[in-house]
Specification:
GO molecular function, one term: isomerase activity
CATH class of the domain at 4-172: Alpha Beta
Largest sheet: 6 strands, mixed
Keywords: Isomerase
Protein name: Enoyl-CoA hydratase/isomerase
Pfam families: ECH_1 (PF00378)
Order of helices and strands: EEHEEHEEHEEHHEHEHHH
CATH architecture of the domain at 4-172: Alpha-Beta Complex
Family: Belongs to the enoyl-CoA hydratase/isomerase family.
Oligomer: single chain
């Protein structure tokens, strides 16, 4: 059973995260499928741009705690989104948590409806947003990122747009994206590739410099006793032992 559906219309390849029963959590299988689909898009001259969207009420709940991807695989996926020679547009109509926010930050353009909510929940299960900070830090407001990463608070789509996590937020996400997709279809493919390369250079510098230590940090935290307690508490729907 596939976790990523693929459709195409007028040069736009739509990749749909399709594991709603698991809230489109980033399992090893889903990350592998999405990586493969994006790789195909990057080498297909008939693809002008990619739309990344979802089924169900959640864009992505973050890492699948029962079948998490290896940190190296998640880094590779995020880097692929950033350096893909085709623009990647995120279309969000549901909730986004933890690692799912890394997917948004790695996309070139991201739009969400006002029904979407966002939260960096890592600290609440005893880990840190280590790997996803690679695309996040160069693209989002540092003061806001400090608040939301340190507290795990939920915020809405308007705030996500204000801090740079989203390009736009509104009642009708498809209306928001209609001029975006029209513009991409009207743009020369080679020009899109080179323009994206210019725009993502600083993000890729962050990957080159910090990916290895952040991958090691993620692996260390996820294997810690504190994280085991946090993940167990989450799955058991109770507060972890450190809550005051």
């Amino acid at each position: 059973m596939t976790a990523v559906r693929r459709t195409r219309a007028r040069g736009i390849e739509t990749l749909t995260l399709d594991s709603p029963q698991h809230r489109n959590a980033l399992s090893a299988a889903l990350v592998g499928e999405l990586t493969g689909a994006l790789t195909d898009c990057g080498t297909d001259d008939a693809v002008r741009a990619v739309v990344l969207t979802h089924t169900g009420t959640t864009f992505s709940a973050g890492a699948d705690l029962r079948d998490p991807p290896h940190p190296d695989a998640l880094v590779a996926l995020l880097r692929l989104l950033v350096e893909l020679p085709r623009p990647v547009v995120a279309r969000v109509t549901g909730h986004v948590r933890a690692g799912g926010l890394g997917l948004l930050a790695a996309c070139d353009i991201a739009a969400a409806s006002h029904t979407a909510t966002f939260a960096f929940t890592e600290v609440r299960i005893g880990v840190a947003p280590a790997v996803i900070s690679l695309p996040l830090l160069p693209r989002t407001d540092p003061r806001a990122l400090a608040r939301y990463c340190l507290t795990g608070e939920r915020f809405d789509a308007a705030e996500a747009a204000r801090i740079g996590l989203l390009t736009a937020a509104g009642d009708d996400v498809d209306a928001l994206l209609e001029p975006v997709l029209d513009g991409l279809r009207r743009s020369a493919p080679e020009a899109l590739t080179e323009t994206k390369r210019l725009l993502t250079a600083r993000v890729l510098e962050t990957f080159d410099r910090d990916a290895a230590p952040l991958t090691a940090l993620s692996a260390r935290l996820f294997s810690s006793p504190r994280a085991r307690e946090g993940m167990t508490a989450f799955l058991e729907r109770r507060d972890p032992e450190w809550v005051l």
